[in-house]
Amino acid sequence: MRRALDAMSKHTLREEEGRVADMEYHAALLNAAGNPFIVSLSKGVTVAVDALTRFKLRITPLKRDPSPDHWRVYEAIAAP
Fold it and tell me: How many domains does the structure of the chain reveal?
């Protein structure tokens, strides 16, 4: 998740690299649950997140940067 967040922050969701990193982040988050049902949703969720992001970007620039929210989730998971 950390590697994906670093790439997401560096490239932003306007760039392909940033969107790929966002999908990797969400896949890692779902896989970390360790729940087979949740893990089975990983591909569908990541593809849906990417499709929605691309759709939003076609209409208008993103109104806010989602990275801070993603970092807060990561930090909560990584906390001892």
Answer: 1
Domain that holds residue 50: 2-78
Global pTM value? 0.85
Contacts 24+ apart (CB under 8 A), 17-20: 19/50, 19/53, 19/54
- 56: number of Cβ within 10 Å: 13
SS3 13: coil
DSSP string computed for 15-34: SHHHHHHHHHHHHHHHHHT-
Instruction: Tell me what the mean pLDDT of segment 10-17 comes to.
Output: 92
CA dihedral 29, 30, 31, 33 (to 10 degrees): 90
